[in-house]
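Section 4.2 – Deliverable D4.2 (structural model, holo form)

The reporting period included a commitment to supply a predicted holo structure for the target in complex with magnesium ion. Inputs used:
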Amino acid sequence: MAFLSRQRQALCAWQGRQRKGTNAMGEYAIEFEQVSKTFPHAAEPAVHETSLNIAEGSFITILGASGSGKTTLLKMVNRIHEPTSGRIRVQGQDITSLPVKNLRRKIGYVIQQIGLFPHMTVEQNIATVPKILGWNAGKIRERVAELLELVHLPAEFRDRYPRQLSGGQQQRVGIARAMAGDASIMLMDEPFGALDAITRASLQDELIDIQRKLNKTILFVTHDIDEAMKLGDQIVIMNEGRIQQYGTPLEILTEPANDFVRQLVHADDVFQRLELMEAQRMMVPVRQASGEIGHTVYTTDSLKKVLSCLLQSDGEQVGVRNEDDELVGTIGFEQLKVLDGRIHEPIESR
Ligand SMILES: Nc1ncnc2c1ncn2[C@@H]1O[C@H](COP(=O)(O)OP(=O)(O)OP(=O)(O)O)[C@@H](O)[C@H]1O
Ligand SMILES: [Mg+2]
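Output (structure tokens):
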């Protein structure tokens, strides 16, 4: 156990950023406390005694097979479903203690199918929540323009109808709509599920960018392991209504909690998975750098590249540069020891 806990500490250090926690008031963005949901006439609960703390500003992916309770978990946060037992708090407040309308103002929601209103233009779709909030026409127009830019859609799309857009473009409108009211929490239920691989990858990148810029708390459901690894600061793995593990992508790869997790994430194929994790997600910020720096990589390079560089260089660590070529962090062998003996395997041959 002591060994495991040392490993965990090393992992946190390696990640080089504090685990996000509570806000100044000591509150989490979302807390599930022993939450269960059993639908009428169901033999088993869809969600079973789930406890989970979601830190402000974190990007959480929820991964699990079809029917494992992911959507149900999400829909209890904005009270589309009510828990059978347990308690949910949003920013410290029990969600049953405030009017549903007020709760939903804090929470943007992108549903499993694209779900745009087909008889409304892009602008009208995006303006749904601002209208409910009573914003004036000028402010709404401004906000729509700002959001179209944020999700990389041309301004002239505002007058189109959903059927005149591609699937990827519709999904961008869905994201813009969920962000329109400036909610600090976003619930996203397999938003990219129906998209081709290329569109999906670029929307994933854009979403990471948006989250970094706006510091939203995002709960993102997917059944795609690669997507969960790429997007999540932390991943929640669910099976049959129960959380199997809640940890960083690296923790889940290197310390799968049980056989279910191991098989689900193909933890044995650690190198393939490392390809999905960016250096910036794991680096130690440069102010803590010490010792010789050998090769450097870019913030968006994969951890697989970092490992490869370390194995090829004589240095103790590799530097990490941002797009302006400034040194912003390091990753060293010392931290990589958490991968156990596995890094001695020649990764170039894989
Ligand atoms: N409104 C409902 N009424 C009754 N049972 C429901 C309802 N919604 C979901 N369920 C059941 O609850 C369980 C969990 O469903 P849920 O939609 O949360 O799964 P999921 O993990 O989101 O699956 P998927 O990946 O297919 O979207 C399933 O067995 C499902 O049949
Ligand atoms: Mg679902």
